[in-house]
Amino acid sequence: MRLLDLLKPHLISMELVETKRTSGIREVASLLKSDPRVKDFEKFYQDILSREREEATCLGFDVALPHARTESVTDMVLAVGRSTKGVFFENSNQTAKLLFVVGTPKRMATDYLRLVGTIARLLKSEAIRSSLLSAQTAEEFAEILSAAELKL
Fold it and tell me: What range does the domain containing 133 cover?
């Protein structure tokens, strides 16, 4: 599964309100609340927080990747939030301006690892991060990531 298959403009929040880890993750995850692939939103959110408690998901470079392998989704899901103020992840003492929330069924471990790896590789690029932070619309944000993924 490719990033561009999952990344839809209606699943991108261009300006997060929340500035704390759990509420910021919830704000981004809530973009998936009415997604038919999410069977149980509260369980999905709790699974993400549980994974976050095990190991911080901040990658550095103002990026966080809260994710979970969970039976609360029927297929892989992705939502993204951008914050100019930053969301503080106290468990790693880092602030993230880009949050990528990923959920996947446990049976899709290979696809999950591939997607998380793709996101991490793309966001190591300062040029890509800068472009994402300056994108004017969710459509432009999605285009930037899709074009970058095609170059991998």
Answer: 3-151
